[in-house]
TrEMBL record:
It catalyses: a (3R)-hydroxyacyl-[ACP] + NADP(+) = a 3-oxoacyl-[ACP] + NADPH + H(+). Belongs to the short-chain dehydrogenases/reductases (SDR) family. It comes from Endomicrobium trichonymphae. This is 3-oxoacyl-[acyl-carrier-protein] reductase. The keyword Oxidoreductase applies. Pathway: Lipid metabolism; fatty acid biosynthesis. NADP(+) binds at N63, V64, N90, Y155, S156, A157, S158, K159, I188.
Length: 247
């Protein structure tokens, strides 16, 4: 078991990639805090994972765009488990539009969740991890933050910003043995990509060398590597899980 005795907090983990990470981490012995804005689904996910793997799993409601919620998440987690070894900043949303048509609300809401949300959670957990003198932070970016994407100025800016946050925090926290890395998934089969039309799907598959979308479990296995002792000399890295779409 690669995460025996560890405590992991995962934002946006009621479903999709976050849930897949939770499952893989539970199967490797980690205790979990399933945090999501959708508390009913988060509670259901936490109950199912606890039943399946037997490790202590708790659901906590929270909107990552609010610093107060992130501070409550950290307090609730440390009150129960005394420590947080791993934070996965996974919560994210899309509100796509062409630049000319994008509203201020569409821009602000995506930046608030995807970019400020990562800052909020890192700020909230930093005191705990600095005191522990150890920790892992894994930020879920996107291939779109590396290469841009028409119709996603808000999302690509937020995900590019997540890479910059990752490198900054990796430098700031390295001396305290807190490793900070990012994963940049390509197109992964989840509720987020279910919104794509068949035409968009076919176009995307045509530019992915592996010629298919990835699975949430592909991202979860990369997260396990970055959370485990196997990656103890890696920080500030952006790990692509994209079928070769961007290299
Ligand atoms: P999803 O839509 O299936 O799950 C996102 C989860 O985040 C949901 O449970 C939702 O309730 C929660 N959430 C939304 N806003 C929140 C907030 N303000 N506070 C707390 N929780 C909130 O999406 P998916 O596909 O699992 O995405 C997870 C992460 O992976 C996101 O950051 C996304 O941008 C990123 N990503 C996804 C890709 C894909 O192809 N599915 C590709 C690249 C990155």
């Amino acid at each position: 078991m690669k995460l025996q005795g560890k405590t992991t907090v995962i934002t946006g983990s009621a479903q999709g990639i976050g849930r897949a990470i939770a499952e893989v981490f539970a199967s490797e012995g980690s205790r979990l805090v399933i945090s999501d804005i959708n508390i009913e689904l988060a509670q259901k996910t936490a109950d199912e994972i606890k039943t399946k793997y037997g490790f202590d799993t708790m659901a906590v409601a929270g909107n990552v765009s609010k610093l107060e919620d992130c501070e409550t998440l950290v307090k609730t987690s440390t009150d129960k488990f005394s420590k947080i070894d791993i934070l996965i900043n996974n919560a994210g949303i899309t509100k796509d539009n062409l630049v000319l048509r994008m509203s201020e609300t569409e821009w602000d809401s995506v930046i608030a969740v995807n970019l400020k949300g990562v800052f909020n959670c890192i700020k909230a957990v930093s005191k705990t991890m600095l005191k522990q003198r150890q920790g892992r932070i894994i930020n879920i970016s996107s291939v779109v933050g590396q290469m841009g994407n028409a119709g996603q100025i808000n999302y690509s800016a937020s995900k590019g910003g997540v890479i910059a946050i990752t490198k900054t925090c990796a430098r700031e926290f390295a001396s305290k043995n807190i490793l900070v890395n990012a994963i940049a998934p390509g197109f992964i089969r989840t509720a987020m990509t279910d919104k794509l039309t068949e035409g968009q799907r076919q176009m995307l598959v045509s530019i992915i060398p592996l010629a298919r979308f990835g699975e949430a479990s592909d991202v979860a296995k990369a997260a396990l590597f970055l959370a485990s002792d196997d990656s103890s000399y890696i920080t500030g890295h952006v790990l692509s899980v994209n079928g070769g779409m961007y290299m």
